[in-house]
């Protein structure tokens, strides 16, 4: 494995995925105390990132499954999931379930929900990965993919670590069910606005 390419891949991954750490920590906090929730978050993160890599690789070889004008509308995915989470938090508050941890209340995150948010939040990743893959060649691209997939695991471990630190866990346990909808809605709105969806 070319060490220089691997180092470039690691730097590229870190720069394009910093925002995922907060979202992962929120997902892990939402699933705290729920059997299998952490595995679903990891599976969803890998699923979403594999989809990003598949689209980037295909586009690098000239097959564009997602035309550029469509990319901003991916913001509708986290926006819809954020609205759903906000509705669930409001409904539980109205029913007097405020003391129930977010993971018990929501049943924890589902793998496909995590994958959808990861993929939708990957528009900037696609914008960077496609030209890098197109110029890297097959050998270097395989190094990029291997490093990226290894670092997804590191990101998941870091997200879980942050979510389980006593101070952070207390904050996320108490406010995570309110913070997650705002973060998802914010991510969705940012993708829509920055991409110029609906003429924004």
Overview of this protein structure:
- It is a single chain.
- With 200 residues, the chain is mostly helical.
- Helix content is 79%, strand content 0%.
- Helix 2 packs antiparallel against helix 6 and helix 3 crosses helix 7.
- About 4% of the residues have low confidence.
Which terms would index this structure?
200 residues; mainly alpha; 7 helices
The helix fraction, in percent, is over 70%
Total count of strands: 0
Largest sheet: none
Strand % is under 5%
Mean pLDDT: 81
Distance between the termini: 44 Å
Shape designation: globular
Task: List SSEs in N-to-C order.
Answer: HHHHHHH
Radius of gyration: 18 Å
The helix tally amounts to: 7
> Regions with pLDDT < 50 over 5+ consecutive residues?
98-106
Q: Which class of secondary structure composition applies to the elements?
A: mainly alpha
